[in-house]
Amino acid sequence: MITDVHAPQAHQQPYSRAYEQMLDKVRYEGAYPTREKADETVRLVLAGFGRQLTGDERVDLAARLPLEAARVLTAQIPDTQPLTGWAFVKSLAARSGASLATTRWDTGSVFAAVTAHAGPDLTTRILHQLPTGYALLFGQAELTPAA
């Protein structure tokens, strides 16, 4: 018997409606063929992001995300040295085995959904906390303070 390894198992809890909506947004933004591919992408990117984000911004973002997404984010121990946006993409690509272009696309698709949940104020706070390069991943201009 052939089974689909991506099909939900009988003992697995169904996703919350909020998480399903998040997956639908990621699926649309990333043009993924299935909700399962969107879920895989969300989990990869949020796990990586959980290793970068710290402090109140991490707590506040987790509170605004659907429970399933918040668990993935907060299950990670933050790195002692945060990565730049480009190094973040390279790290995710190495973990997933995907190309840098695909990983950049995946990251932008997930961060579009994260921004929708976080709202503009929290997104700005998050971007101020992180090293350079994340604003572009969040679909925003990279602004640097005047010297």
Automatic annotation (TrEMBL):
Any Pfam family hit: DUF2267
Lineage: Bacteria, Bacillati, Actinomycetota, Actinomycetes, Kitasatosporales
InterPro entries: DUF2267, DUF2267_sf
Name of the protein this chain belongs to: DUF2267 domain-containing protein
Domain of life of the organism encoding this protein: Bacteria
Species of origin: Streptomyces hazeniae
